[in-house]
Write a structure and sequence with these properties.
The chain is of the alpha/beta class and 123 residues long. It contains five helices and five strands; from the N terminus they run βαβαβαβαβα. Helix 4 links the parallel strand 4 and strand 5. The longest helix is centred in the N-terminal third of the chain and has 13 residues. It is globular, with a radius of gyration of 13 Å.
Length: 123
């Protein structure tokens, strides 16, 4: 199975770190620095998993996920956040069959990889 991952986050340093680490681990990584770019990228290409930060300028992570769900009915998501999981985010996790968990920032890269492998095994 191809391990093609889209990462959408406004923290450029984190995008660079994740791309380097996950590429070394055999993943094919595309990064986008905001929700709008992520949505456009999801229109052009299909991904095994889409990692989305919740707190971003312009289009937040919840709206980004909802937009991509409308584009790709097979997309699988993993949320990364530095905020608590409440309200709209909690509702999304509970109601979306394609959001497969979340990881709080800062996180351990090995822990992220474990989560990714679990999501990749899902149908």
């Amino acid at each position: 199975m191809e391990k093609k991952i889209l990462i959408i986050d406004d923290e450029k340093g984190l995008l660079v770190t994740l791309k380097k680490y996950l590429t070394l681990k055999g993943y094919s990584i595309t990064t986008c620095s905001n929700g709008r770019m992520g949505i456009e990228e999801a229109r052009r290409n299909k991904y095994s998993i889409i990692i989305v930060d919740i707190k971003m300028p312009e289009i937040n992570g919840v709206d980004t996920i909802k937009a991509i769900e409308g584009i790709d009915d097979k997309a699988k998501f993993l949320i990364i956040t530095g905020c608590s999981i409440t309200g709209e985010v909690s509702d999304l996790i509970e109601t979306s069959k394609r959001v497969h968990g979340y990881i709080f920032k800062p996180f351990n890269l090995e822990h992220l990889e474990e989560k990714l492998e679990k999501v990749l095994k899902l149908p």
